[in-house]
Specification:
Rossmann fold; 6-stranded parallel beta sheet; two-stranded antiparallel sheet; 10 strands; 25% strand
Length: 178
């Protein structure tokens, strides 16, 4: 069972959060799409968290939940037989709180959140400066070509097994397939 700690707002937070950061179009989402199936195959319950600096609208104009928000609700949660969706307007809570909303998972892959206090891997295409070179939480860099100034271990982004081994070793995650 995953150990739980309390976040700043008193909500449970999964301690096993691994971040993927980097410049826009560096390959973060693509790597997550490749990591998740292998982590699931290894027996992990995986959640993901995405930071979108550009903003987004997840609700469709005209739906009941959209109408609730248009009427002034700051948060709307819609639950159905196949899942749920939370739409909250205004500034988001701290990342630690958001992780707690993902529920009972073994590992959270967090895309973005460059300044968050959890281990992270930077995706980098091999040219230009790193996005997070001085981040004390930066544990590795991955991409098609090793950057010139790489202060941490580098992985080719096709080394999915090795990257997952890194994550499992950080959190001592060795789960039996369910």
């Amino acid at each position: 069972m995953t150990r739980r700690i309390k976040g700043r707002l008193g909500q449970p937070v999964a301690p096993n959060v691994f971040g993927l950061c980097g410049w826009s179009k560096a390959g973060k989402t693509t790597l997550i799409e490749r990591l998740v199936p292998e982590l699931v195959h290894r027996g992990h319950r995986v959640g993901t968290l995405k930071h979108d600096v550009h903003g987004f609208l997840a609700d469709t104009p005209g739906t009941d939940s959209w109408r609730h928000a248009a009427a002034g609700a700051i948060a709307t949660l819609i639950a159905g037989p196949d899942g749920l969706a939370l739409q909250r307007h205004g500034p988001p809570p701290p990342p630690e709180f958001l992780v707690g909303l993902l529920g009972d998972v073994d590992l959270v892959l967090a895309e973005g959140f460059k300044g968050a206090p959890w281990p992270k891997l930077e995706l980098h295409r091999g040219t230009g400066p790193l996005a997070c070179p001085d981040d004390p939480w930066l544990v590795a860099v991955a991409g098609p070509v090793q950057p010139l100034h790489c202060p941490v271990p580098w992985y080719h982004w096709d080394e999915i097994g090795a990257i997952i081994d890194l994550v499992e070793n950080i959190y001592s995650l060795r789960l039996k397939a369910r």
